[in-house]
Amino acid sequence: MRKLLLLPLAAMLGPGPAALAEAQPSEQQPTSTEAPRASAPLGMPIRYAALGASDTVGVGSRSPASENWTARLRAALPGDTAYDRFARSGITLSEAVDVEVPRAIAFKPTLVTMWLSVNDALRPSPLPSYQKSLQATLERLMKETEARVVLLNVPDLATLAGSRATPEMRVRLREQVKAWNAAISATAHAFGPRVLVVDLLPASRALAGHAEWLSSDGFHPSPAGYQQLADVTLEAMRGAGWLPPAPR
Questions:
Q1: Considering the entire predicted model, what is its pTM?
Q2: Are 167 and 11 spatial neighbours (Cβ–Cβ below 8 Å)?
Q3: The 195-198 sheet, strands edge to edge
Q4: How many angstroms separate the CA atoms of 171 and 159, rounded?
């Protein structure tokens, strides 16, 4: 299974340095994934819409509906939170624009989580096209809902590639991820405190010492990995002032 998972990574790397050049943002942009602090906590009750792909579906878990990372996040929110998932395995952002986003808007959310970057990066989609789709999606969510949006970026694909990846592959993968995350951060930055980018790089780099965070396919999270994703996202939301601090 690991060999099959390396195929899209190899395809991503195939074009060589030219692909890396194309992937860089067209202008020098801030690379920080820290959003401005929100002016106030989320209003209550929360209406939470989860957009995403296989990780939001829950692939790799025993009970996908309850063990995916957004369900774990929902469990940490107030009890009167309304929650629905709009996710499909293998979907890209450009596909989700027509499939998931309209349904999420109809739900009238006050909170949206969106993790739609990994499949695009692995295809790989042209980064300028992805950035344009992200810009349009965020603009639509800002205009057609009252939601704040939590945006997860691309994790460390070099770590996920495992032992089969050569040192050269790892360097190139990390350069690619750096370019994608810089573009995601720059796009989100324009929307101010209504969009929070959650940086997955630190947690994903820790995967090398936490095999239990991955499912048997070596790529999707295990139940423990899904809990880690929820915890990282929850910590970012608390740090931005969207949610109260964790009880002591």
A1: 0.83
A2: no
A3: 82-87, 47-52, 111-115, 148-152, 195-198
A4: 11
